[in-house]
Amino acid sequence: MEYVGGQGLKALYIKGLPRFDLPQDRHRLILLGDVHGHWKFAKHVCKQLLTPSHDIATFIQLGDFGWKSDYENFLKTLPNNCDLNNVKILPGNHDDYDYLENNTDIKDHILSPFGVLRFKEQVFYVSGAKSEQDDIEGKLKWQAKRKKKAYWEQEEISESHHQEIITMWESLKPQIMLSHCGPNSIGTKICDSLGIKGRLQDTQTGALFDKLLTIHEPQYWYMGHYHASRYLKEGKCTFRVLGVNEYCFHDIKAS
């Protein structure tokens, strides 16, 4: 079951977000698309939906959260009654990897580079994505001008992890997949639907995801990256693309 939330910065001013009762054997995934520094919206979602008085839930932001100060502001300003153990970020291609990998305060909140959230319905995740070449060039120019790093090679998951990911995927056959970008085949269709045909370059991560689909099709695949809100049904899998500051719920069997 999925419930679609609001999209856009105007949602910052919503006094209350929709709440739904859950049976005791269910757990709610609160999934949020790209943030790009708008950490106050992520805070608002957590404040409304991730407190002990509400249903048991895990908040997962699907990449491109922002830079060092954005993570710090987000975590430090969450209300005391928010369960920080259930606040997670899956890095994308616009995240500060030096900060994420070297700061102990945020380490427990990062899902990287890949793994499984073990509920009765297993949730598989893979972090990272490759920036477009012009985006990489822009990042390199920016960091040369500002003397501040803006591009990391580990933005895209290393090929050295591919075989382990494939082996785990084949063994577990998860029903839910979380990632920042999608398979190349799906990314192409998303861009076509946005009228930017040919804009997206094929990537190693996208090719890996296409290979995973030939082995096993999950029931649901959630992603951000494309700055658009889309549903696509391919074979047995429903692909849900979350836009910037768009959130949704997915209720799963907890035990």
What does this structure look like?
- With 255 residues, the chain is an alpha/beta fold.
- It has one domain (21-253): Purple Acid Phosphatase, chain A, domain 2 (4-Layer Sandwich), CATH 3.60.21.
- The protein is built from eight helices and eleven strands.
- The strands form two sheets. Strands 5-6-7-8-10-9 form a six-stranded mixed beta sheet, with no helix packed on it. A five-stranded mixed beta sheet has the order 1-11-2-3-4, with helices on one face.
- A hairpin with a 5-residue loop joins strand 5 and strand 6.
- Helix 1 packs parallel to helix 2 and helix 6 (162-172) packs parallel to helix 8.
- The longest helix has 14 residues, at 133-146.
Could you describe the largest sheet, including whether it forms a barrel?
A: 6 strands, mixed
Count of discrete structural domains:
1
Derived from helix and strand composition plus strand pairing, the structural class reads: alpha/beta
Q: For this structure, what is the CATH class?
A: Alpha Beta
Shape: globular
Question: Which range best describes the helical content: under 10%, 10-25%, 25-40%, 40-55%, 55-70% or over 70%?
Answer: 25-40%
Amino-to-carboxy terminus distance: 17 Å
Alpha carbon gyration radius:
17 Å
β-sheet strand percentage: 15-25%
The helix count comes to 8
What's the architecture in CATH terms? 4-Layer Sandwich
- Can you write the helix and strand succession as a string? EEHEHEHHEEHHEHHEEEE
Tally of extended strands? Answer: 11
User: Might you state the CATH topology name?
Assistant: Purple Acid Phosphatase, chain A, domain 2
The overall average pLDDT, rounded, is: 84
